[in-house]
Design a protein that fits this description.
Layout (H helix, E strand, L loop, with lengths): L1 H18 L4 H12 L4 E4 L11 H7 E8 L8 E8 L7 E6 L7 H5 L3 H10 L6 E6 L20 H16 L5 E6 L1 H12 L6 E5 L12 H7 L14 H8 L3 H6 L2 H7 L2 H4 L3 E7 L8 H14 L3 E7 L6 H20 L3
Parallel strand pairs: 1-9, 4-5, 4-6, 6-7, 7-8, 8-9
Antiparallel strand pairs: 2-3, 3-5
Helix pairs in contact: 2-13, 5-14, 11-13
Organism: Candidatus Cetobacterium colombiensis
Keywords: Hydrolase, Membrane, Transmembrane, Transmembrane helix
Pfam families: Esterase
């Protein structure tokens, strides 16, 4: 009898999954709605805005420091790169940037062209001293900036929320802080930013995995399973075993780590004065469904009155090349919003 009930529930769930699958016509309808929001801008001209600098100029302008932090929350020393101007003329802003899965901190410097973008802004008169905090995620680039399920030696969210924050405050006391990230890093930045609003004024996600349940199964199916064990075969074919290792196969535990779900339960008073930046490429669809995730979260940000700016880049994919274009616009957003906090 029990086996028959379980088989029936699985059948119904699969049927529901097929019926509610995010087909293209549904995606296009939702995208059209989101593009009508006043907070959303479609970027047609996606050419790079940064100027070219030779290596000598870059070395003359910037210092790159490497540090390792020990933590009771992780079994490994956590590596951090600090990119900053050689001369700081004022109390600097601090911007934490999280990389994507299997990437590393250096990718912000060499793939996202962070130095070129920042220096181009200064050459054009948009000037604020910024110290860039570029951590490795840990766990060989696959930590998801998250506390692993049933694993006390890999509590990465604890490290980034507590130890990294303490380090920044000791090094640059009273600095205004922002946090952003690409892909897995966009997920980590939005989640940690939402959970630590007292620390971060500006929070950004660039093509981030910010509606996490879409990385597992259809979000409507997840509601059915939220208090049940989610069979592995329902997970998309994207790092299945590692996803379960980090987040657990239990629906309610996944939802607790899902930025899309976290926004719904946030106290609106805590969100007051916080600024959000959400971007994506228009072709960033499969296999990670980043466009769909962006649509989910932009819609929810609008519904719950987050103060946000959304950008969608025409014909851009899930690449560091796209990030090298978007980071310029985010830095403009970051600088302009922090000026209001002087």
């Amino acid at each position: 009898m029990a086996l028959e009930i379980i088989s029936f529930l699985v059948f119904v769930s699969i049927l529901f999954y097929v019926v509610t699958y995010p087909y293209n016509f549904k995606l296009n309808r939702k995208l059209k709605r989101v593009l009508g929001f006043s907070q959303v801008e479609k970027i047609i001209d996606t050419r790079e805005k940064y100027l070219e600098f030779d290596n000598k100029e870059l070395l003359e302008e910037f210092i790159i420091e490497e540090k390792y932090l020990e933590s009771v929350h992780t079994s490994e020393k956590m590596r951090i790169l600090i990119l900053k101007p050689k001369v700081l003329k004022e109390k600097p802003l601090c911007l934490v940037l999280f990389h994507g899965i299997r990437d590393k901190a250096e990718d912000w410097i060499y793939k996202a062209k962070l130095r070129e973008n920042y220096l181009s802004l200064k050459r054009r008169g948009i000037q604020r001293d910024i110290v860039f905090i570029l951590p490795d995620s840990g766990y060989k680039g696959e930590s998801w900036y998250t506390n692993f399920y049933h694993d006390k030696t890999h509590q990465y969210e604890e490290f980034f929320s507590k130890d990294l924050t303490k380090f920044i405050e000791n090094e640059y006391p009273d600095s205004i802080k922002g946090i952003g990230g690409f892909s897995m890093g966009g997920y980590g930045a939005l989640k940690i930013g939402l959970k630590n609003l007292e620390e971060y004024d500006i929070i950004g996600s660039f093509s981030g995995a910010i509606s996490l349940i879409r990385m597992s199964i259809n979000r409507r199916v997840m509601r059915i399973f939220r208090y049940l064990y989610v069979p592995r075969f329902l997970f998309n074919d994207v790092n299945k075993s590692h996803f379960v290792k980090v987040f657990s196969p239990w629906g309610y535990k996944i939802l607790k780590n899902d930025p899309y779900s976290i926004i719904k339960v946030m106290d609106p008073k805590r969100l007051k004065g916080k600024k959000f930046y959400l971007s994506v490429g228009s072709e960033d669809k499969k296999p990670y469904l980043m466009l769909q995730q962006w649509i989910d979260v932009v819609g929810r940000a609008k519904k719950y009155n987050l103060d946000f700016k959304g950008k969608i880049y025409e014909n851009e994919y899930h690449t560091w090349e796209y990030i090298s274009k978007d980071i310029y616009n985010f830095l403009v957003f970051f600088i302009n919003e922090t000026k209001k906090r002087k």
